[in-house]
Specification:
347 residues, alpha/beta, five-stranded parallel β-sheet, 10 strands
Length: 347
């Protein structure tokens, strides 16, 4: 496994041109820590109160992959982190009962008030007046699916799962992706039919933009290859962002506020990979001005980086080195040094 990982990592770095920057904050640190994680990271999983499944593909793949992985230990004394498993439809009252039972029946929660624990909630959980749920929300690492509702994500603590993606090359019937891209459109949007309708209507009226509504995968992948930038409306249809990046379409995320829940925020330099653009007050004209302001040199660099970064955002039924599952595990590894709160009694 270590040798395979080293080879894949070197291949990824070699794929970047000499003039390109790195998609990583620190490639050396990432590789060294990743190797350590593979050999030493251990997670103890509490027994769920009842069997359950995640209907969300990324959450389901992450959870099932973790259960089958060598990261799991049956000895809580050697665990770095503890997983609190519960169904995504668990009520606040039932969740409070789960945490209360952990506190009363196991010694591990009380050592850190849950700071060395994590849980999977595809949509995320809100703050609660219940003390047990509040400790879970404030102290434990939440793993949810990108994008997360405002207020449900705590930056620098929580982690988001990349959206589930299919293979772009399979969708394109094995057609090769040209390294030098000739585009017909400045920007492409696969619209969900609901988000930001005023802006979308303006984009439809501009010949430099292509807007398709709820397009089938094969259709939007072909449109991606004809476009310079791919537009994503935050909280709209973002599931195809990984395919777009794989095919060299630089992502432009249109937001209404600063966001800090992009996948792999601890690993990838998103500011060099994608454009985050506030909902344009000037509509499509202002958006067009922003995109036209990206130099060809800058665009070529961003395109290389987004293709390289996409390799880490792909989900596999059987996890592969450096894929989405392992990168999420790496983010958990970075959070294993929990703050140790002073122990106190609970009533």
């Amino acid at each position: 496994m270590a040798a395979t990982t080293a080879i894949l990592f070197l291949v990824l770095l070699a794929s970047l041109s000499a003039t390109s920057s790195s998609p990583y904050f620190s490639a050396t640190t990432l590789f060294q820590n990743y190797q350590n994680m593979l050999t030493s990271f251990r997670i103890f999983i509490y027994t769920p109160t009842k069997p359950f499944n995640f209907p969300n593909p990324p959450a389901s793949l992450f959870y099932s992959s973790l259960l089958r992985s060598p990261f799991v230990t049956q000895n809580p004394a050697e665990a770095h982190l503890f997983l609190v498993p519960f169904s995504p439809d668990t009520s606040t009252r039932s969740l409070a009962r789960v945490i209360r039972e952990l506190r009363n029946n196991h010694p591990y929660w009380n050592r850190t008030l849950g700071a060395d624990h994590f849980f999977v909630s595809p949509a995320g959980i809100d703050y609660s007046s219940d003390r047990n749920v509040l400790e879970l929300k404030k102290n434990s690492v939440q793993i949810s699916v990108f994008p997360v509702v405002s207020g449900y994500f705590v930056p620098h603590k929580d982690v988001t799962l990349p959206p589930f993606s299919t293979s772009p090359l399979a969708l394109l019937d094995g057609q090769e992706v040209n390294s030098t891209k000739t585009t017909s459109f400045l920007g492409y949007l696969n619209w969900d039919g609901m988000t930001e309708p005023n802006l979308v209507n303006e984009l439809k009226g501009d010949v430099d933009f292509l807007v398709q509504e709820k397009s089938e995968p094969l259709n939007y992948m072909r449109s991606v290859t004809e476009s310079k930038f791919c537009l994503f409306l935050y909280h709209g249809e973002v599931t195809w962002i990984v395919e777009a990046m794989s095919l060299g379409c630089v992502p432009v995320v249109i937001v209404d506020r600063p966001i800090q829940d992009l996948p792999l925020m601890d690993i990838l330099r998103w500011s060099e990979i994608a454009l985050l653009v506030a909902v344009p007050r000037g509509g499509s004209k202002r958006l067009k001005k922003v995109l036209d302001g990206v130099s060809e040199e800058k665009y070529a660099d961003m395109r290389e980086l987004c293709v390289a970064a996409s390799k880490h955002l792909v989900w596999n039924e059987e996890p592969q080195p450096l894929d989405a599952f392992h990168m999420v595990m790496y983010q958990l590894w970075l959070r294993r040094h929990a703050v140790r709160y002073s122990r106190r009694e609970f009533v």
